[in-house]
UniProtKB/TrEMBL annotation:
<feature type="domain" description="HTH psq-type">
    <location>
        <begin position="18"/>
        <end position="58"/>
    </location>
</feature>
<dbReference type="InterPro" id="IPR007889">
    <property type="entry name" value="HTH_Psq"/>
</dbReference>
<dbReference type="Pfam" id="PF05225">
    <property type="entry name" value="HTH_psq"/>
</dbReference>
<dbReference type="GO" id="GO:0003677">
    <property type="term" value="F:DNA binding"/>
</dbReference>
<dbReference type="InterPro" id="IPR009057">
    <property type="entry name" value="Homeodomain-like_sf"/>
</dbReference>
<protein>
    <recommendedName>
        <fullName>HTH psq-type domain-containing protein</fullName>
    </recommendedName>
</protein>
Length: 81
C-alpha cells in the first residue's frame, strides 16, 4: 500500500509582485528565474507562464462553448418590447 503524496502548500502572492518580477526579467533577461522567484516570492510556474505570454483562463474562450460570440448575439432575446 502506497502513501498518498502530500501536496506542497501554495505560496500566497499578489499580482503586483508578479508584475514586478516580470518587469525585472524583461529589463534583464539573463537574470535567473529562481532568483526572481525567491526575491519576489511568487510561484515559479506562474512566473514562467506569464513570461511565455500565455493568456489567463478568464480571458480565453472555452473550447466547450456551443456557440461563438456571433451565435450568442443572434440567439439573445432583446428584453425591450
Amino acid at each position: 500500500m502506497t502513501m498518498p503524496q502530500q501536496q506542497r502548500p501554495r505560496k500566497p502572492y499578489c499580482k503586483g509582485r508578479l508584475c514586478l518580477a516580470v518587469r525585472q526579467y524583461q529589463s534583464n533577461p539573463r537574470q535567473s528565474l529562481r532568483r526572481l522567484v525567491a526575491a519576489y516570492n511568487v510561484p515559479e510556474s506562474t512566473l514562467q507562464t506569464h513570461l511565455r505570454g500565455t493568456p489567463s483562463r478568464s480571458k480565453t474562450m472555452s473550447v466547450n462553448r456551443k456557440l461563438q460570440a456571433i451565435g450568442e448575439q443572434s440567439c439573445s432575446v432583446d428584453p425591450r418590447p
